[in-house]
Protein backbone atom coordinates (compact mmCIF):
# COMPACT_ATOMS: atom_id res chain seq x y z
CA UNK A 1 0.00 0.00 0.00
CA UNK A 2 1.35 3.43 -0.97
CA UNK A 3 1.04 5.93 1.88
CA UNK A 4 1.80 9.65 1.73
CA UNK A 5 2.60 10.88 5.26
CA UNK A 6 1.90 14.52 6.07
CA UNK A 7 4.91 15.51 8.19
CA UNK A 8 5.08 18.98 9.72
CA UNK A 9 8.23 18.48 11.76
CA UNK A 10 6.25 18.60 15.00
CA UNK A 11 6.39 15.76 17.51
CA UNK A 12 3.09 14.15 16.43
CA UNK A 13 3.96 13.62 12.77
CA UNK A 14 7.59 12.74 13.54
CA UNK A 15 6.35 9.92 15.77
CA UNK A 16 3.88 8.71 13.14
CA UNK A 17 6.65 8.64 10.54
CA UNK A 18 8.94 6.66 12.86
CA UNK A 19 6.20 4.15 13.69
CA UNK A 20 5.37 3.53 10.04
CA UNK A 21 8.97 3.48 8.81
CA UNK A 22 10.01 1.00 11.50
CA UNK A 23 6.87 -1.14 11.16
CA UNK A 24 5.96 -0.47 14.81
CA UNK A 25 2.54 1.18 14.39
CA UNK A 26 0.50 -1.98 14.93
CA UNK A 27 2.28 -2.80 18.20
CA UNK A 28 2.00 0.82 19.35
CA UNK A 29 -1.76 0.92 18.72
CA UNK A 30 -2.33 -2.50 20.24
CA UNK A 31 -4.50 -3.94 17.47
CA UNK A 32 -4.08 -5.48 14.03
CA UNK A 33 -3.99 -3.30 10.92
CA UNK A 34 -5.20 -4.47 7.50
CA UNK A 35 -1.61 -4.48 6.24
CA UNK A 36 1.95 -3.71 7.27
CA UNK A 37 3.24 -3.74 3.71
CA UNK A 38 3.78 0.01 3.26
CA UNK A 39 5.54 2.05 0.59
CA UNK A 40 6.05 5.43 2.22
CA UNK A 41 6.50 8.98 0.95
CA UNK A 42 6.64 12.23 2.91
CA UNK A 43 4.93 15.54 2.14
CA UNK A 44 5.57 18.90 3.79
CA UNK A 45 3.53 22.03 3.07
CA UNK A 46 5.19 25.30 4.03
CA UNK A 47 2.43 27.69 5.12
CA UNK A 48 4.97 30.49 5.75
CA UNK A 49 2.77 31.52 8.68
CA UNK A 50 5.39 31.29 11.43
CA UNK A 51 9.12 31.84 11.79
CA UNK A 52 10.03 28.16 12.20
CA UNK A 53 8.54 27.09 8.86
CA UNK A 54 11.84 26.87 6.97
CA UNK A 55 13.50 25.12 9.92
CA UNK A 56 10.67 22.59 9.96
CA UNK A 57 11.00 21.99 6.23
CA UNK A 58 14.73 21.36 6.60
CA UNK A 59 14.12 18.84 9.38
CA UNK A 60 11.46 16.99 7.40
CA UNK A 61 13.82 16.77 4.42
CA UNK A 62 16.48 15.29 6.71
CA UNK A 63 13.95 12.77 8.04
CA UNK A 64 13.12 11.69 4.49
CA UNK A 65 16.83 11.05 3.90
CA UNK A 66 17.15 9.24 7.22
CA UNK A 67 14.30 6.83 6.47
CA UNK A 68 15.09 6.57 2.76
CA UNK A 69 11.71 7.72 1.46
CA UNK A 70 10.63 10.19 -1.25
CA UNK A 71 10.10 13.77 -0.14
CA UNK A 72 7.61 16.27 -1.61
CA UNK A 73 7.36 19.90 -0.55
CA UNK A 74 5.65 23.10 -1.59
CA UNK A 75 5.61 26.64 -0.24
CA UNK A 76 2.42 28.68 -0.38
CA UNK A 77 2.34 31.21 -3.18
CA UNK A 78 -0.05 33.56 -1.38
CA UNK A 79 -0.38 34.87 2.12
CA UNK A 80 -2.64 32.64 4.18
CA UNK A 81 -4.71 34.68 6.60
CA UNK A 82 -6.43 32.06 8.73
CA UNK A 83 -6.31 28.50 10.05
CA UNK A 84 -9.07 27.57 7.61
CA UNK A 85 -7.16 28.92 4.60
CA UNK A 86 -4.00 27.11 5.72
CA UNK A 87 -5.87 23.84 6.16
CA UNK A 88 -7.53 24.13 2.76
CA UNK A 89 -4.21 24.87 1.02
CA UNK A 90 -2.46 22.02 2.84
CA UNK A 91 -5.05 19.40 1.92
CA UNK A 92 -5.14 20.59 -1.68
CA UNK A 93 -1.38 20.02 -1.83
CA UNK A 94 -1.59 16.61 -0.12
CA UNK A 95 -4.38 15.38 -2.39
CA UNK A 96 -2.53 16.55 -5.51
CA UNK A 97 0.69 14.77 -4.53
CA UNK A 98 -1.22 11.64 -3.52
CA UNK A 99 -2.86 11.56 -6.94
CA UNK A 100 0.47 12.10 -8.72
CA UNK A 101 2.18 9.19 -6.95
CA UNK A 102 -0.97 7.01 -6.81
CA UNK A 103 -0.97 6.91 -3.00
CA UNK A 104 -3.93 5.02 -1.54
CA UNK A 105 -3.74 6.77 1.83
CA UNK A 106 -2.71 10.17 3.17
CA UNK A 107 -1.62 9.59 6.76
CA UNK A 108 -1.94 12.47 9.22
CA UNK A 109 -0.86 12.54 12.87
CA UNK A 110 -4.10 13.77 14.43
CA UNK A 111 -4.40 12.30 17.91
CA UNK A 112 -6.96 12.00 20.72
CA UNK A 113 -6.39 15.56 21.96
CA UNK A 114 -7.01 16.88 18.43
CA UNK A 115 -10.21 14.84 18.25
CA UNK A 116 -11.51 16.39 21.48
CA UNK A 117 -10.65 19.91 20.33
CA UNK A 118 -12.42 19.32 17.01
CA UNK A 119 -15.61 18.14 18.70
CA UNK A 120 -15.66 21.19 20.99
CA UNK A 121 -14.81 23.53 18.13
CA UNK A 122 -17.64 22.12 16.00
CA UNK A 123 -20.07 22.38 18.91
CA UNK A 124 -19.14 26.00 19.59
CA UNK A 125 -19.41 27.10 15.95
CA UNK A 126 -22.83 25.46 15.64
CA UNK A 127 -22.09 22.67 13.18
CA UNK A 128 -24.97 20.49 14.41
CA UNK A 129 -25.07 16.86 15.54
CA UNK A 130 -22.84 15.67 12.69
CA UNK A 131 -20.03 17.90 13.96
CA UNK A 132 -20.09 16.12 17.32
CA UNK A 133 -18.65 13.08 15.56
CA UNK A 134 -15.41 14.98 15.14
CA UNK A 135 -12.71 13.15 13.23
CA UNK A 136 -12.95 9.65 11.83
CA UNK A 137 -9.98 7.34 11.40
CA UNK A 138 -10.60 6.96 7.68
CA UNK A 139 -12.25 9.64 5.56
CA UNK A 140 -11.72 9.00 1.87
CA UNK A 141 -7.96 8.82 1.46
CA UNK A 142 -7.27 10.60 4.74
CA UNK A 143 -6.06 8.12 7.37
CA UNK A 144 -5.69 9.16 11.02
CA UNK A 145 -4.32 6.08 12.84
CA UNK A 146 -3.40 7.91 16.07
CA UNK A 147 -6.86 9.09 17.12
CA UNK A 148 -6.87 6.80 20.16
CA UNK A 149 -3.44 8.02 21.30
CA UNK A 150 -2.92 11.07 23.52
CA UNK A 151 -0.41 13.85 22.94
CA UNK A 152 1.38 12.81 26.15
CA UNK A 153 1.85 9.26 24.81
CA UNK A 154 3.33 10.59 21.58
CA UNK A 155 5.75 12.86 23.42
CA UNK A 156 6.78 9.99 25.69
CA UNK A 157 7.51 7.80 22.65
CA UNK A 158 9.52 10.59 21.00
CA UNK A 159 11.67 11.13 24.10
CA UNK A 160 12.21 7.41 24.68
CA UNK A 161 13.34 6.91 21.08
CA UNK A 162 15.38 10.14 21.02
CA UNK A 163 13.52 11.58 18.04
CA UNK A 164 14.14 15.14 16.88
CA UNK A 165 11.31 17.56 16.21
CA UNK A 166 10.66 21.28 15.94
CA UNK A 167 8.30 23.03 18.33
CA UNK A 168 5.67 25.16 16.63
CA UNK A 169 5.54 28.52 18.46
CA UNK A 170 2.01 29.16 17.17
CA UNK A 171 0.80 26.34 19.44
CA UNK A 172 1.13 28.78 22.35
CA UNK A 173 -0.88 31.56 20.69
CA UNK A 174 -4.42 31.55 22.10
CA UNK A 175 -5.56 33.83 19.30
CA UNK A 176 -5.82 30.61 17.29
CA UNK A 177 -9.20 29.08 18.05
CA UNK A 178 -7.99 25.53 18.68
CA UNK A 179 -5.20 26.75 20.96
CA UNK A 180 -7.77 28.72 22.95
CA UNK A 181 -9.89 25.58 23.35
CA UNK A 182 -6.83 23.55 24.38
CA UNK A 183 -5.36 26.03 26.82
CA UNK A 184 -8.39 27.88 28.19
CA UNK A 185 -11.60 25.87 27.79
CA UNK A 186 -10.53 22.26 28.34
CA UNK A 187 -8.59 22.93 31.59
CA UNK A 188 -11.67 24.64 33.03
CA UNK A 189 -13.91 21.78 31.94
CA UNK A 190 -11.51 19.39 33.67
CA UNK A 191 -12.23 21.13 36.97
CA UNK A 192 -15.84 19.97 36.64
CA UNK A 193 -14.97 16.51 35.28
CA UNK A 194 -11.32 15.35 35.42
CA UNK A 195 -12.19 12.73 32.76
CA UNK A 196 -13.63 15.32 30.37
CA UNK A 197 -11.42 14.16 27.50
CA UNK A 198 -12.71 10.59 27.72
CA UNK A 199 -16.30 11.84 28.07
CA UNK A 200 -16.06 14.00 24.94
CA UNK A 201 -14.47 11.16 22.96
CA UNK A 202 -17.38 8.86 23.97
CA UNK A 203 -19.87 11.44 22.71
CA UNK A 204 -17.91 11.66 19.46
CA UNK A 205 -17.94 7.89 18.98
CA UNK A 206 -21.70 7.69 19.56
CA UNK A 207 -22.33 10.62 17.20
CA UNK A 208 -20.28 8.95 14.45
CA UNK A 209 -22.17 5.67 14.89
CA UNK A 210 -25.51 7.49 14.64
CA UNK A 211 -24.27 9.48 11.63
CA UNK A 212 -23.24 6.29 9.83
CA UNK A 213 -26.72 4.83 10.31
CA UNK A 214 -28.46 8.01 9.18
CA UNK A 215 -26.24 8.19 6.11
CA UNK A 216 -27.27 4.67 5.09
CA UNK A 217 -30.94 5.64 5.37
CA UNK A 218 -30.41 8.88 3.42
CA UNK A 219 -28.49 7.19 0.60
CA UNK A 220 -31.19 4.55 0.24
CA UNK A 221 -34.03 7.13 0.22
CA UNK A 222 -32.21 9.29 -2.36
CA UNK A 223 -31.52 6.40 -4.71
CA UNK A 224 -34.71 7.06 -6.73
CA UNK A 225 -34.11 10.78 -7.19
CA UNK A 226 -30.38 11.41 -7.62
CA UNK A 227 -30.33 11.44 -11.42
CA UNK A 228 -33.15 13.99 -11.67
CA UNK A 229 -31.83 16.35 -8.95
CA UNK A 230 -35.45 16.59 -7.76
CA UNK A 231 -37.28 15.23 -4.73
CA UNK A 232 -41.08 15.30 -4.10
CA UNK A 233 -41.79 17.61 -1.19
CA UNK A 234 -44.85 15.81 0.17
CA UNK A 235 -42.83 12.64 0.62
CA UNK A 236 -39.74 14.49 1.85
CA UNK A 237 -41.64 16.52 4.43
CA UNK A 238 -43.21 13.38 5.88
CA UNK A 239 -39.78 12.07 6.92
CA UNK A 240 -38.28 12.60 10.40
CA UNK A 241 -36.39 15.90 10.51
CA UNK A 242 -33.12 14.14 11.37
CA UNK A 243 -33.37 12.13 8.15
CA UNK A 244 -34.31 15.25 6.17
CA UNK A 245 -31.12 16.93 7.37
CA UNK A 246 -29.02 13.93 6.40
CA UNK A 247 -30.61 13.80 2.94
CA UNK A 248 -29.74 17.46 2.37
CA UNK A 249 -26.20 16.81 3.62
CA UNK A 250 -25.85 13.83 1.28
CA UNK A 251 -27.05 15.88 -1.70
CA UNK A 252 -24.47 18.57 -0.96
CA UNK A 253 -21.67 16.06 -0.41
CA UNK A 254 -22.52 14.31 -3.68
CA UNK A 255 -22.38 17.54 -5.69
CA UNK A 256 -19.60 19.49 -3.96
CA UNK A 257 -17.40 16.72 -2.57
CA UNK A 258 -17.13 17.99 1.01
CA UNK A 259 -19.20 19.75 3.69
CA UNK A 260 -16.47 22.01 5.08
CA UNK A 261 -18.36 25.28 4.55
CA UNK A 262 -21.74 24.10 5.85
CA UNK A 263 -23.31 25.40 9.05
CA UNK A 264 -26.52 24.61 10.90
CA UNK A 265 -28.21 27.72 9.51
CA UNK A 266 -27.88 26.34 5.96
CA UNK A 267 -29.86 23.22 6.85
CA UNK A 268 -32.50 25.22 8.72
CA UNK A 269 -33.02 27.55 5.74
CA UNK A 270 -33.48 24.72 3.22
CA UNK A 271 -35.81 22.77 5.51
CA UNK A 272 -37.87 25.94 6.04
CA UNK A 273 -38.01 26.37 2.27
CA UNK A 274 -39.21 22.76 1.84
CA UNK A 275 -41.99 23.25 4.39
CA UNK A 276 -43.06 26.73 3.26
CA UNK A 277 -45.61 25.67 0.63
CA UNK A 278 -44.52 28.57 -1.58
CA UNK A 279 -43.36 27.83 -5.12
CA UNK A 280 -40.57 29.42 -7.12
CA UNK A 281 -38.53 30.31 -4.04
CA UNK A 282 -34.85 29.50 -3.60
CA UNK A 283 -32.10 29.39 -0.98
CA UNK A 284 -28.34 29.47 -1.32
CA UNK A 285 -26.94 26.42 0.44
CA UNK A 286 -23.18 26.82 0.51
CA UNK A 287 -22.21 26.39 -3.15
CA UNK A 288 -25.59 24.91 -4.12
CA UNK A 289 -28.93 26.55 -4.80
CA UNK A 290 -32.16 24.81 -3.73
CA UNK A 291 -35.51 25.96 -5.09
CA UNK A 292 -39.13 24.86 -4.96
CA UNK A 293 -41.38 24.50 -7.99
CA UNK A 294 -44.18 22.38 -9.46
CA UNK A 295 -43.40 19.47 -11.76
CA UNK A 296 -45.96 17.02 -13.18
CA UNK A 297 -48.56 18.52 -10.85
CA UNK A 298 -46.61 18.07 -7.61
CA UNK A 299 -44.39 20.35 -5.54
CA UNK A 300 -40.71 19.43 -5.70
CA UNK A 301 -37.37 20.58 -4.32
CA UNK A 302 -34.74 21.05 -7.02
CA UNK A 303 -30.99 21.62 -6.68
Please characterize this protein's 3D structure:
This protein has 303 residues and is an alpha/beta fold. It has 2 domains: 2-112 and 135-170, 3-Layer(aba) Sandwich (Rossmann fold), CATH 3.40.50.620; 224-302, 2-Layer Sandwich (Uridine Diphospho-n-acetylenolpyruvylglucosamine Reductase, domain 3), CATH 3.30.465.60. It is 50% helix and 15% strand. The chain has 11 helices and 10 strands. The protein has a 6-stranded mixed β-sheet, with helices on both faces. A 4-stranded antiparallel β-sheet has the order 7-10-9-8. The protein is elongated, with a radius of gyration of 22 Å.
Summarize this structure briefly.
Helix content is 50%, strand content 15%. It is built from 11 helices and 10 strands.
Question: Which helices and strands, and how do they pair?
Answer:
Blueprint: E1 2-6, H1 11-21, H2 25-29, E2 39-46, H3 53-67, E3 70-75, H4 83-101, E4 105-107, H5 112-125, E5 138-139, E6 142-143, H6 151-160, H7 177-192, H8 196-222, E7 230-232, H9 233-237, H10 241-256, H11 264-275, E8 282-285, E9 288-295, E10 298-302
Parallel strand pairs: 1-2, 1-4, 2-3, 4-6
Antiparallel strand pairs: 5-6, 7-10, 8-9, 9-10
Structural key phrases:
10 strands; 303 residues; 2 domains; elongated; six-stranded mixed β-sheet; four-stranded antiparallel β-sheet; alpha/beta; Rossmann fold; Uridine Diphospho-n-acetylenolpyruvylglucosamine Reductase, domain 3
Amino acid sequence: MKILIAVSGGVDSVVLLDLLAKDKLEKFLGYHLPTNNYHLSIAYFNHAMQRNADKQEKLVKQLAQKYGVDFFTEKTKKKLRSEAEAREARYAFLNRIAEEICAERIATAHHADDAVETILFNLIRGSGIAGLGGMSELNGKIWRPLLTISKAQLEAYAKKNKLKWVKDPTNQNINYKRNFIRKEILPRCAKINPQVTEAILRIGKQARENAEFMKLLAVEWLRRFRKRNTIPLTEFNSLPIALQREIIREIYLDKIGNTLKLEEKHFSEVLELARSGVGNKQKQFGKLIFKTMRSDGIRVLVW
